[in-house]
Amino acid sequence: MKNYGVDVEELKAPKSKRIFRAWVEEWELPLLKKNDVVAEIRLCEKYKGLTFYDPDNECQYTVYDKNLEWTRGRGGGWSLICQPHNDDFEDEPFLIGEMVIGLITETEQEEGVEIIRNDKMRSSASE
């Protein structure tokens, strides 16, 4: 293959096994406030297993991969159940939104997770 100009090393490199779109996507919006199992499963699929560092309590978390937590009332909705890497802390819910997405984006993820930032949306929001 080298004889034909194909970069063999690039072919050997591991491909992204998962793409994380670092914004609240259009399909998520109606699901964030909908308390049903389909919404929970779809949202869990996007966020499960991702890690982030919370500077407020100086703890690293991993998003639980089995289910989310529902909060009723104004300002409620689906929250990620996050498991701390520190035994001094307990599992903590983080409401799905720009704050937790920002923390995930700033944290190095496991190999194979590719984070895509929506620069177009970010630049239009700052205008």
Strand and helix map with partners:
Layout lengths: L7 H5 L5 E4 L7 H4 L4 H11 L3 E4 L4 E5 L5 E3 L5 E8 L7 E4 L2 H9 L6 E4 L2 H8 L1
Parallel strand pairs: 1-7
Antiparallel strand pairs: 2-3, 3-5, 4-5, 5-6
Description:
The protein is of the alpha+beta class and 127 residues long. It is 29% helix and 25% strand. Strands 2, 3, 4, 5 and 6 form a 5-stranded antiparallel β-sheet that branches. The protein has a two-stranded parallel sheet with strand order 1-7. The chain is globular, with a radius of gyration of 18 Å. The termini are far apart. The model is unreliable at 121-127 (pLDDT under 50).
Task: Report a brief summary of the structure.
The chain has 127 residues and is α+β, with helices and mostly antiparallel strands.
